[in-house]
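Dear Dr. L.,

I hope this message finds you well. Following up on our conversation about the binding site, I have prepared a predicted three-dimensional model of the protein together with flavin-adenine dinucleotide. For your records, I am including the exact sequence and ligand specification that went into the calculation, followed by the structure tokens. Please feel free to forward this to your student if that is useful.
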Amino acid sequence: MKKYDAVVIGGGNGGLVAAIRLLQGGAKTLLVEKHNIPGGFATSFRRGRFEFEASLHELNDFGTADNAGDVRVLFDELGVTDKVEWLQIPEAYRVIAREEKIDATMPFGKQAFIDKMESYVPGSRKSMEKFFALAEEIRDAQAYSNSVNGKTDQKVMLDKYANFVKCGSYSVNEVLDAIKMPKKTKDILNAYWCYLGAHCDDLSFLHYASMVLRYVTKGAAMPKSRSHEISLAMVERIRELGGDVWFNTEAVKIITGKDGGVEGVVLKNGEEIKTRHVIANCSPHIVYGRMIDNVDERIIKETNARKFAGRGFTMFLGLNKSADELGIENHNYFLYDTMDTVKQYDLMKKIESNSVQATVCLNRAYPDCSPAGTCMMYFTTLYMTDDWANVKPEDYFKVKDFVANKMIERFEQDTGCNIRDSIEEISVATPMTYARYCGHPEGGIYGYESQYWDGLMPRLLMMAEDHKTRGLRFAGGFSMRLSGYSSAYFSGDITGRQTVGDIKREG
Ligand SMILES: Cc1cc2nc3c(=O)[nH]c(=O)nc-3n(C[C@H](O)[C@H](O)[C@H](O)COP(=O)(O)OP(=O)(O)OC[C@H]3O[C@@H](n4cnc5c(N)ncnc54)[C@H](O)[C@@H]3O)c2cc1C
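The resulting structure of the complex is given below.
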């Protein structure tokens, strides 16, 4: 029987980073990935003349060499930054909302962002400055908390980060109302909400403010050869460090011993790997529901209490005209019916009523990403319930066409561009595609929803209590940092290092 200090199940963003951290900590590590390529959602695929990005709109918190974000710092430590060719995204976003008749394009850079907001909403400057001051204090408090491994001193917190403590249990809308932000300013500022998949009455202000601050001050990046380039760079790094990566290898069972702790992993071909440490890059629902026998009832109840975040739908278009010819001006569009995020969230529960889209034209960041005279776009939406489960198999293609058609129509109406006549390639991924590809329940692409009781702060605070099975930890979109690229990378960093600590403690 082969023996490893640790086995990582899944080669998505969280699993890849966890494996590098394990190896850097001296652990003999095996990563198993059920597909023949790494990355999970972080990959690309070809249709005709186009290589489509499968998921990444923009990598938050990466920054540049002289204004590094936390993800770049992490990648430097992992030894992967220089293995990837990076591009900067030109502007933050363009948000178009029908009900409020908003059409705003926001730049990167704190001052530029505040100035542009003032031009759209005269009189907004003061509340925007307050917002950024709060967001900066939140980041400083988080940095302090990380520096003491979460064991914060209450006096330091109250003396230096009182506003962080004050905002701790409030939602985005509650805090923005408290600082008297004008409604239109709030509407424009809240455009990123769909990236976190929870509406602004539920979404923690701490989480949102810290994310917006990083986007605005560090800008956003993209690898030239799509996110697949990052995933390949990580596999190369794992192998340089002496780790094993087995593709086409699905883990089907985690063997537990008398103490309930990890003793090994069973692969789909029946092979057993001996290990006392597993990092699972899949959801606790799958791990506790299918991969471990005799799970404690409390764990099952706790797992079932969580709510799945948005289920994904993406349409990819290869167009036989350039972005200039088609009049596509921006890299990143958010198209909403309304900026009332609670109302919008409700509309996103049903296939029939969901018309939201987050749309990217990669050529605006990287003109040569497709052949000369062409451009490519991807359109993503989220479903806030499992409505796709109500689609009968015989209606599946019809419903796919219905949504794809609606997305094209909506983009054309809201931006005035005619894209339909120039479609050369079209490909559509539904929640079924995502469920099959990464194995996530209901085709979720954002892990567990950031609810009031289950947001970033409660998860970080509960990290120790959440570690219920000896030798088993989770990395990726379903774990303590919530979902998204940066979050999945950070969770891999945390669990990788924690597992190294566990191994060292065991001796
Ligand atoms: C269309 C789309 C757009 C997105 N846009 C953005 C964006 O712009 N910015 C952003 O930050 N985030 C975005 N996201 C979210 C982001 O892609 C995810 O949060 C992130 O990639 C999740 O990483 P993960 O570590 O959870 O791994 P996953 O990508 O979920 O991968 C898990 C891996 O584990 C493997 N696996 C699972 N079970 C097993 C098993 N039993 N044995 C072996 N292997 C197994 C799977 O095959 C898969 O490779 C987007 C996602 C999608 C789908």
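In brief: The first strand starts at residue 2 and ends at 3.

With kind regards,
A. P.
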